[in-house]
Amino acid sequence: MTKPRRVLVTGASSGIGAATARLLASRGFDVVAVARRLDRLEALAKDTGIAVHRLDVTDFNAIKALAAELQPVGIDALVNIAGGATDAALVEDADPDSWRAMFEVNVLGVQQMIAHFLPLLRDAARANGSADILTVTSTAGRTPYESGGGYNVAKYGATALMGVLRLELAGEPIRVIEIAPGMVKTEGFALGRFAGDTSRVEALYKDVENPLSAEDVAEVIVASLELPSHINLDQVTMRPVAQAAQHKLVRGKLEPK
Ligand SMILES: NC(=O)c1ccc[n+]([C@@H]2O[C@H](COP(=O)([O-])OP(=O)(O)OC[C@H]3O[C@@H](n4cnc5c(N)ncnc54)[C@H](OP(=O)(O)O)[C@@H]3O)[C@@H](O)[C@H]2O)c1
After folding, report:
1. Is 205 annotated in the active site?
2. pTM above 0.90, yes or no
């Protein structure tokens, strides 16, 4: 029997990350799941047998320590999902601390994860012929929108980072995959953006027929990892059918004309 591929998933305590960790485990991958909320990770571990570690991706010493801890067992794929938005402010009103926080988690967290885990991924590529780095960015990194400023800037940064990395790793058997979802109805994302205001969260998704779910995005992430290792999905943009573009969200029932 071939050894299952070991995948390190960040942001695995809720939403897209938790769904991805579960789906990977159900498809036979060996999963290491990380996030800050250990109680949630422990519940995930209890359900699935997944290995879990507490990790704040903005704590670069902690990333380094985790990479050293996992070095003996190695990893074959790094899946960066930790991230999100901390405000919905106009550029003229934005709090620089909030923008800094979004840049730290969505860009620097990803860069530091890659920097510290690349040696392990190269070991895997030497041993097995391939390795993967996948990051969940956003359609917020494709199109700017009003009150999206800090999050747009961060996700454009994450997209640029993945593009640069793909060029820098050219010549190595390491895939660099970017998945950019549009509207996904998850537990935490909109709550973080609207500072816990549930009425604004409800208004965002109101009457949208089938926004993407965390499980939908997990399906695409896992499918991209399961493809033969010479196929690199550079950039995947995925949206609900009700969202034709960032500014074209249809509310109400979708019907043929
Ligand atoms: N929902 C959407 O509409 C949407 C659309 C496009 C892209 N995305 C992106 O998809 C990713 C997942 O979002 P989601 O919708 O699943 O939201 P979510 O339910 O809020 O999940 C966010 C995850 O990121 C983790 N996280 C946040 N800060 C972290 C930190 N400093 N260190 C480690 N982990 C951290 C959280 O865990 P802890 O709090 O336990 O650390 C949580 O597991 C994000 O990168 C988001 O930007 C979301």
Report:
1. no
2. yes
